[in-house]
Request: fold
Amino acid sequence: MAEPILKVENLKKYFPLKRGLLASLRGEPQRFVHAVDGVSFEIHKQQVFALVGESGCGKSTTGRLIVKLLEPTDGKIYLEGQDVTEITTKEEILAYRRKVQMIFQDPFASLNPRFRIFDVLEEPLLIHGIGETRAEREELIYKALEMVKVTPPEDYVSRFPHMLSGGQRQRVAIARALILNPTFIVADEPVSMLDVSIRAEILELMKDLKDKIGVTYLYITHDLSTARYFADWIAVMYLGRIVEIGPATRVIDNPLHPYTRALLAAVPEPKPERRNVIKELPIKGEVPSAVEIPPGCRFHPRCIYFQKGLCDVQQPKLIEYEHNHWAECHLVGKF
Amino acid sequence: MAKAVLEVKNLKMYYFTNKGVVKAVDDISFELKKGEVMGLAGESGCGKSSLGFTLLGMPTPPGKIVDGSIKIDGREIVGLPEDVLRKEIRWEKISMIFQGAMNALNPVYTVGYQMTEPLLYHKGMSQEEALDRAQKYLELVGLDPEIVYRYPHELSGGMKQRVIIAMALLMEPSVVIADEPTTALDVVVQAQIINLMKRLKKELGLSMIFITHDLSILAEISDRVAIMYAGKLVEIGDSEKIYYEPAHPYTQKLLAAIPRLHEDVEKLEFIPGQPPNLINPPKGCRFHPRCPYAMDICREQVPELKEIDKDHYAACWLL
Reply:
């Protein structure tokens, strides 16, 4: 198989908790939020890799580590073979960001309200010194807007973001990411704030662009239905770790990990005949704090298959149970 | 046939803004039967939340009820003075489960204080009686009654949403409006809240209007579904009819835009364009500029809701 575009190895990010003066004088140990706690995966060219999980599972932190908005505590990230964690100088970071761009969740917050659409799209060009004259840059901007179907571009370039609808804004945000012609895009919940029909439109657009310009996506979402539709691979995250990873349809149709099963059971489906049936949710309690990670398997306090003396003692390993389909659980196949 | 607990006739609620009159709720009629959950769906800005607030007799300023009638248990509430609405209607007869559990509770008061307030004010209960009632309802929604002594920040999102639901039920109203009660919740918590609402529907025989933009969630609980577009109802009928035999092109498009969890969808459909400005809505059918089947008549005349099947109504010239 070809070399992956992106390779993440044992990635960790711990955020220190604030502690009071008294606590530090007493010499109490520094405590950490274990946002990402040993995550590894590979993404191949022109594929969509979905990172799925509930709020606080570390999926967005993983995305931010990849675009270097955050520095990892430990672990490696390789883009096209280059070790990204070694990059430190401003020039190198600039060069890296040309290849890796991000689309944010909220198109109402991610576009500067005082910038016209032209300025929004010109900014990355200026930062990266692309296009010598304004006319050259204008051409690139028009092309980018056409690509995301904000047409005709001349009608939109002098507008401010508030004069656009939510869907149009998100398309401008995508155009801003694409204008540098990146190889890799981190899309952090790009459709979760949009209405159903606009959501479909943006997903179709992103899918279309994948084939047209050969971009590769990390798609961060909490929504398994859109992940199945858009992604080739799904990795399910829980409390900072990937608990299951595999081809999208396999993860959905044959979930191995109890957490994935619970997530899938919870997804609402447009089937009214089940409206009076109370759904069984094979999960207990609530997500624990990422400060005090439960020992052994971190899912054990919520797992309905929990086995004392095993799950609360030994951390399970990520094991391949069927071709390309991995899970981190002691009890796969035993429940 | 079950009696209607809520009858809405030709209701119009307009926002009188500086830029013009926004016709957010424009000539809407429907009935809600006892023990029935009616889903109300549509894109943002279609007027579904505006309709919800109007039913409580409290359109958000500068909104005003312009015309029409809202009857709860046979009593007309349009035109009642504010103090009567407050004392006799709101929470007593009709209550609301608010969107965004995070913000609907006051952070500086305990849960118990916030829950007992309407009981002390409306029912003239003593402190003990009120606290007792609050605890009973907290238990009903699956919470530890000791939560009355806690502050909202000590609770998780799911727990707060349960408190909000308990508050809406506390006065035993005839009708409950739930406005996006599960948005902003994680999928597991969302499923737990939906389960809770299903259980309450069964145990208490709740009559409820469930407002959301998410047709998948709506299918989980609604007996009947009403689809709203640009201030008007475009289709209303039993859930099975709406989901499996949608009649209005808008409903059909909305359903085709949902990615399915267990089905392969080749291509998601979407509706080109965007919902119209409600100050100057398009002439004729408001959906015609985005409708693939638009004909001449659609551009000229407003289609009325007509019965196309038993208890299944749609407003479209194609039918």
Remarks:
- Chain A has a mean pLDDT of 93.
- Chain A has one domain: 6-328.
